[in-house]
Amino acid sequence: MIRHAAMLIALVVGLQNAHSQDNSVQQKSAPFSENTVSIESFIGQDVCLTVEIDLASLELTANQALLEKLTGEKFPPELALGMRDFVNDLMKAGVEKGYLIATVGSIGDMLWQLQRSGTFKKFSPLLVLPCTKPDQVQAALEDLTQKLGQTASLQIRKLSAANEDGQSFVLIGNSETAKRATQPAKPQRDALRETQIAKNQLTHKLIFSLPAETRRDLIDLWPDKMPATFPVAIPPRAMVQDIRWIMASADLPPEPALQIQIKMVSKEAVQRVQNAISTSLALTGPIKQHVQMTTADKILTLYIATESLLALATTASAPAAKRQKTKSLKQIGLATHHYHSIHGHLPPRCFTDPAGKPLQSWRVAILPLIEQQAVYEAFNLKEPWNAASNQKVAATQIPLYSNGKSETTKTTFRAPVMKGSLWEGDGPPRQFRNITDGLSNTIAVIDAPDSAATAWANPEPWLISAKDPMSDIFGDRETVAALILDGSVVTLKKSEMTNEKLKAMLTFAGSEQVEF
């Protein structure tokens, strides 16, 4: 289920603005009769997925708090404020609900992009905002993208009602998607129409149903059974035949709730799917006790004890995030050692031009050693990281550096620069033999506070105060992950740290006694 309606809208708009090759704002559209267009008009026979978000029911503060718990990351205050203003502006323009509509082709296109490049360069589904004041909706979208630092124009189609009391629509998508949406729609899918009258729906909905042609193709292609090593005896072909549609509906915080309804073609199909789900839940450990199943009218309904599962998830998310940071830092440490073996010295703090002007970060130097050889070769190392020749490659997502952050081209893995530290100065790169304090006593890289996040190719140094390094390194955090030059990763605790002890860890030739 979509975690946060405003976040969904911002993500859609942000992706479209940042990457679309055919961005244009359609200022005006011919009015249409209010009796000829409804949200159903955009749901043709090829649609397989619809998402409906009720903006009026959103409690943004409660949702933000939940997301921060789940991710372990704080929302930037300006982003949170921008989202609130954006949703308020939409509601003032008459937007009560937002819809995401996707065809099999659009989902396949996005999955192909994700597999090929790790990101979405073109947003293929369609976002539909029914409203009474489409011009105000467009203004709100443009204002949001400006606050998010986007510069490209929006790809928008406006369908204005014939009179002020009629319903208008604002469509967001790439040019092909928007054009197709304004063409005469085919009759709405029967399966999707059924879900609109299903009982006991919650506020926000995600509906999935395969078009008839796709269903026939999968029945022809998919096997009758999974391999013997698969933990659950699910017959893929039978599942496609048995399931008519799936609807997940939810209420968001402060009173979260979630249920999943699955409509079958027969009572026998209900039993088969129920058995498969029961077997799958038996493998989920503590999750099973938070799920209840009932059946009625060929519909199997799963009721999920959301608050209990969220408590379980927030308990597990912090250790998972910590493990990921540790793994990433260890990979950086390994790459650093490989770099030293190949070149006879550590990576430079940055590449520079003949005049000493910084060009790219040390993170660019180790790209070939973290399985990013193609990205490294795409860089023009004679030009700054943000020069026109490097802008596209510098915008590439490097999973190891993104560290699970929402801004995937930024990183919090920083090299601390302080007098006497490993990265001080623009002179020749250090060698292991220069580290007289010992590799196991010297900090190399730190997971910096979010306020110190930077573009991963940016060579700007992370300057640490020699008087109060704790303030710069810990920020408002109680613990910090740090890569030691010997390749190990340690957790620094504020309660066990002093400025003098931290300075001793940061310097590489200070002859201090350090205990981790």
Describe the protein's architecture and organization.
The protein is an alpha+beta fold and 516 residues long. It has a 10-stranded antiparallel β-sheet with strand order 4-5-3-2-1-6-7-8-10-9, with helices on both faces. The two termini are 43 Å apart. The protein has 3 domains: 1-186, no CATH class; 189-304, no CATH class; 318-506, no CATH class. Residues 1-35 and 150-154 have low confidence and may be disordered. The chain is globular. The chain is built from 17 helices and 20 strands. Helices cover 36% and strands 19% of the residues. Strand 19 (479-484) and strand 20 (489-493) form a beta hairpin. The longest helix is centred in the middle third of the chain and has 38 residues, at 306-343.
